[in-house]
Amino acid sequence: MSRKDWTAPAPLEIERPRLPWWTMLPRKVLWVVSPIIAAWLLAVSVNQMVRRCYRYPVTITTTATLTGVGFWAGWWWSLAAALTLAAGAGVWWWRWRESFGRIADRQVRSEWRRLRIYALVWRRTMRIAGIAHRVGRTWHYPRVRRVRADGWRDRVLVGLLHGQDPAAFEAHAGALAHSFGATSCRVRVAGPRRIWLDLIHRDTLATPIAPPALAAAAVDLRRLVVGMVETGREFVLRLLGNHILVVGSTGAGKSSVMWSLLWALAPAIRDGNVQVFGVDPKGGMELGRAPHLFTRLVNDNGPDAVDLLEHVAALTRQRAAMLRDANAKAWTPESGMPFLLLVVDELADVVAYQTDRNLKMRANAALQTICSQGRAPGVAVLGQVQDPRKSVLDFRHLFPTKIALRLDEADQVDLAFGDGARARGATAHEIPETTPGVAWTITDGRRQIDRVRAFHTDDAHLAQLDAYAQSGAGPRVLPVPARPEVAA
Ligand SMILES: Nc1ncnc2c1ncn2[C@@H]1O[C@H](COP(=O)(O)OP(=O)(O)OP(=O)(O)O)[C@@H](O)[C@H]1O
What we know:
The protein has 488 residues and is α/β, with parallel strands linked by helices. The protein folds into three domains: 47-95, no CATH class; 96-200, Threonyl-tRNA Synthetase, Chain A, domain 2; 224-487, 3-Layer(aba) Sandwich (Rossmann fold), CATH 3.40.50.300. Helices cover 40% and strands 18% of the residues. The protein has 13 helices and 16 strands. The protein has helices spanning 27-55, 57-73, 75-95, 97-129, 167-170, 173-179, 254-270, 303-325, 347-351, 357-373, 411-417, 459-470, 484-487, and strands spanning 133-135, 138-140, 143-149, 153-159, 184-191, 194-200, 224-229, 234-237, 244-247, 274-279, 294-298, 339-344, 379-385, 401-404, 438-443, 449-454. The protein has a ten-stranded mixed sheet. It has a four-stranded antiparallel sheet with strand order 3-4-6-5. Strands 1-2 form a two-stranded antiparallel ribbon. Strand 5 and strand 6 (194-200) form a beta hairpin. The longest helix is centred in the first third of the chain and has 33 residues, at 97-129. Residues 232-414 form the FtsK domain. InterPro entries: AAA+_ATPase, FtsK/SpoIIIE/SftA, FtsK_dom, P-loop_NTPase. ATP binds at residues 248-255. Pfam families: FtsK_SpoIIIE (PF01580).
């Protein structure tokens, strides 16, 4: 056989087995340090046991108790104890279902999911997704600190590695969702080197939500209930000292946010404590469904609409001057003046698509005056727009609360909310067409982004709302200041 016919042997691919360092010590030294090593091993084992008890308290306590009873008193007694425990849980579930669900069911479910899902595939998933890191021969994994299973989602508190940031998880949100059997995964920052992964299993907002009975109680302008948050909480909007921008493609359900807000405001509107001005460039097809709610309603985007916007801008300036004179910081119900709400059904028609340049400029100036000066003197704007681009609405930043319903493109999410919102989980572009009224919402100054659904107000609700508004004392007509004030 010539040298040419030789086949190079395959390189050895196994790692050399590693023995603990102390096994290399000379025997005499080993005798001396063995108590220290034994104490250290004991401490490690105790630490592991305590951790397991902390992670699975119900499972470990129950198993240990039943096993202890079995050894100590006999296995029939152990079976009897298990049956007593099950009967106790059954009575708890039957009589006090809410507390059973909140305490026992959640705890057992959390332990089960941690054991069955996260303990089993966590490390493998972290390695394949490239989130775990290898330094030398050692793999470093982000640590699962806590698991809370709410039924419709799992919340997993994760301790980040040194040098790692939440973006590492945000970039692999899809892979994490698939690996852990969820429909989506969101990342929330919980604190330094701590993030929550929200792994969603079921959409709690899948069915439309009817509005409650028209409120008889006093209306709180800081807390108007307009729907439900996916966690089951009320979806609350603040009108006092705020403006709200609603963004969504056609048919996304923008008007349901507006009608839900007017529904919550209805008693105050009926009593004249809140006055609503409306601009509906679609010829009254939307706002004209309950016209008696409006002190003034214009059904186009022409001169009348601009007059109305300038009227509200003038009232805003007038009120601001009155507050200044009275040394008051902000509007209060005690001021005797009604709170003003301006609703613009499609902002783009008024400030961008208007072909008359003069009208467009006047509308922009008036709206910016109201948005920039209206919060303190009790004037709020609720604007709706389909296209959140800056070229369409360049004063989006003047709306502290933003609500994004279904959007056509992923880029529109950050346009609506600001940079980074999509990566933090506000996936408005993924809202299906089958769930109109579902939205993401964010308020300036708060990091929290909520997934919500507005109430579904149908024709019968709007007829009821209109009749309810009509039954009141009727709006107090406010004097219109002279126009030059607006231009000033
Ligand atoms: N919150 C909701 N829950 C259930 N269905 C809703 C909800 N909001 C709207 N819908 C339904 O979705 C459809 C479209 O709603 P809507 O007209 O409000 O959308 P839009 O965003 O205002 O559309 P456009 O921009 O074309 O006016 C309607 O059939 C309506 O009944």
